[in-house]
Specification:
The complex is a heterodimer. Chain A is 30% helix and 24% strand. By secondary structure, chain A is of the alpha/beta class. Chain B has a domain of 105 residues. Chain B is 34% helix and 22% strand. The chains are: A alpha/beta, B alpha/beta. Bound molecules: adenosine-5'-triphosphate (2 copies), iron/sulfur cluster (SF4) (2 copies) and magnesium ion (MG) (2 copies).
Amino acid sequence: MPLLSVNDLVMYYKTKMGYVRAVDGINFTLDRGESLGIVGESGCGKTSISMTLLRLLPENGEFQRGHVYFDDGSGPVDLISLPEHEMRKYRWKGISMVFQAAMNSLNPVYTVGDQIVEAILNHYPDMSLDAARAKVAELFELVGLDPKRMDQYPHQYSGGMKQRAVIALALSCDPKVIIADEPTTALDVIVQDKILKEMKRIQKKLNMGMIYISHDIAVIAEVSDKIAVMYAGKFVELADSVTIFKRPRHPYTYGLMSSFPSITGEKKKLFTIPGEPPNLLNPPPGCRFAPRCPNATKQCTEEEPPFIEVEPGHFMACWNPVKREGEES
Amino acid sequence: MSEYILEVKNLKKYFPADRGLFGRVRHFVHAVDDVSFEIKYGESLGLVGESGCGKTTTGKVIVKLEEPTDGTLLLEGEDVSTYVGARKKEYHRKVQMIFQDPYESLNPRMTIFDIIAEPLNIHGIGNLKEREERVSELLQEVGLTPPSSFLWRYPHELSGGQRQRVAIARALVLNPSFVVADEPTSMLDVSIRTGIMELMMELREAHNMSYLYITHDLAVARYMCERIAVMYLGKIVEISETEELLHNPLHPYTRALLAAVPVPDPEFSRGEPEIIGSVTKPIDPPPRCRFYDRCPIRTKDCEISDHPPLVEVLPGHFVACYEVEKQKRG
Ligand SMILES: Nc1ncnc2c1ncn2[C@@H]1O[C@H](COP(=O)(O)OP(=O)(O)OP(=O)(O)O)[C@@H](O)[C@H]1O
Ligand SMILES: Nc1ncnc2c1ncn2[C@@H]1O[C@H](COP(=O)(O)OP(=O)(O)OP(=O)(O)O)[C@@H](O)[C@H]1O
Ligand code: SF4
Ligand code: SF4
Ligand SMILES: [Mg+2]
Ligand SMILES: [Mg+2]
C-alpha cells in the first residue's frame, strides 16, 4: 500500500449563495520517499485539499465523500472514518503541515523557540528540555535562522522568518508526510533554494512523503517527483514532473508551462490565460476549462471528461488533448 | 517643486533584541541601517534582498507605521515628521501600503466590501452606492469575479491569493500618489499576477503614481520597476537601472541572488551558491562590511575597514563594495 492514497475526495463550502465546489473528486497516491507537487491558479482549491485531508475544515466546510488511506507500515487506516481523538494522533506526527498562513500556526504570546520545544516534548515526552532546545537550535540553523533569536516572539520576526519558523515546526516531530502549502512565498531565492534542498535531503533521509503546494511552477519543478495540475476543484493532469514540463497534454497545463517570465532573456509581453478564473459557486457544465480552452468543442461544454490513465502513471481529463509532435490524432 | 515624490535620507530603525535587568536594552537588531534613496514622480523602485534584511521595516517607516530611530523622510520636498492634523490625514490618504501577509493584515470581522471601502469611509468619499460601485469595479479588476460573489464574504472564506488581491484593492481604492507594495503578488500564479501588474501600471500612467515595490521575484521587478535597489542586512548594497542590474550585477550578493533564481525545468540542477554560510545575524553587527561573513571575494582590507559606502562605479550604477570599486577604478 502507498503511504497515502486519496480516493474521490469531495468537500464543498456552504455559503448563502450556494456551494463552493472547492474539492471535487480528487484522486492520488503518495509513496514513501516520494514528492508530489500540486500547482494551479489562485482559488482553485489547493489549500482546501490539505485541510480536508487533515480534517481541519472551517464550520461551513462540508465533507461530502471520499477516503484518505494512510499507511505507515502497520496497515491502511481511513483517516476520514476516525473519531476526532484518534485523528489527533495522526496530525503532526503522521502528517504535518506548513500552513500557508504562517502567522496562524504561531501563537503570538509564546516565543518561537518555546512553541517548537513544546511540540517536540509533546511527541517525545522522554526528551530533556535541554535536548529539545538543542534540537530547535539545529532546526533553526537548518532553515537559516539565527538560534540566538529562539527566545523572541513571532511579531519580532520578518515575514520570511515566520515562514521559516513554521517549516522548522513542521519538521520538528519527524512526520511521515509533510504537506507544505506555499512554504517559500516570503523567501528570497537564495534562502528558498537552501530550504528546498534541506527539505529534500531530510525527506530522502527519513523516507518521508512530501506534498508541495505552489502557484510557482519553477519551485514545483525543483522539488517534485510527480506533479498534479489543478483547475477549478479538480485535477486535470497528473504525471511525473518531466512529462508535465516537457510533454504536457492537457491544454491548461500546456498554457501554464509554455510561458514563464525570465530575468535575462528578451523582455516579452507577459502571459495570461484569456478569460476569467472559474466561479466555483456555479462551475460551467462539462469541462470546467471549456470557456477558456483553445481546443474546446461542443462535447466539452456538455460532457465532463473523465480523469483517466492515458499511459502508465499519466492521468488526464480532456476530450481533445494537445497533440504531441509526430502524433497523428 | 522637488523632482522627487519621496526622498529617504539616512534612515535608521533599530529594534531592541532583548531586555536585560531593569528593562535595559543591551542588544539591537539593526533592521534598517543608514538607508538613502529617492523616487521620482511616476517611478517604481524595486526593493529586493534577503529575507529579514529590513524591506518591510523600510516600508512601514515610509507609511508612518514605525517611527524611525534616525533619518528624514521628504514627501514632495517636505519633511513629513512635522505633519500634524489635516496634513497628517492627507499624508495617510496619499501614501498607502499593501501589506506582505494578507492573513495578518485583513480584519477578520469585516466583510470584503467593508475592508475595501473603509478608506473611503474614513476620508468621507462617495455615498454608499458610489462606494459599492467603486469596490465592485476594483474586485473585477483584481480578478475576483463575479464581484457579487465576493463582496459579502469574510477573509477566512477566501484563499491566500484571493486575500492578497483584496489587500491590493484596499490600498488602491483612494487613488494614492505613492504606494509601498510589499510582496503584493507573492501568492499569485503567473496569469493572475500579470493582470494585477498591468492594473498597477495603468494606474501609474493615469495618476502619475509611484511605487516602492518590495519583491523576491526578480521577473516581477523587471516588469514593474525602472530601478532596483538590493538590500542586505539593513544596508543598500547596490542600486541601478533595472536592465543594467540584471545584466551586469556587480555586488557579490546581487550576483549570488541572480544565480539562485529558480528555473522551471525539472532536469535542471544548480550548483551551490557562491556565498559562504547560511545564517545572517543582524543583532549588533560588527562595523565592517555587512556581507563580510558570507562574501566569497573578501580581503584583509574588508575585515579592518568600515562598511563600504555606496559609490557610483558606472553612470547611475551604485555599489557598496571595496573590491568592485577597486576593479572599476582599474
Ligand atoms: N470558508 C470558506 N467559505 C467559502 N468559500 C471558501 C472558504 N474557504 C475557501 N473558499 C473558496 O474555495 C476556493 C478554494 O480555496 P483554496 O483556499 O483551497 O484555494 P487555493 O488553491 O489554496 O488558492 P491560493 O493559491 O490563492 O491560496 C476559493 O475560491 C475560495 O474562495
Ligand atoms: N517589531 C520588531 N521587533 C523586533 N525586531 C523586529 C521587529 N520588526 C522587524 N524586526 C526585525 O528587523 C529585521 C528586518 O525585518 P523586516 O520585516 O523589515 O525584514 P524583511 O526584509 O521585510 O524580510 P522578509 O523578506 O522576510 O519579509 C528582522 O531581523 C526582524 O526580525
Ligand atoms: S475537455 Fe475540451 S475544453 Fe476541456 S480542456 Fe479538453 S479540449 Fe479543452
Ligand atoms: S567590501 Fe569586501 S566583504 Fe564586502 S562585499 Fe565587497 S569584497 Fe565582500
Ligand atoms: Mg491556498
Ligand atoms: Mg517583509
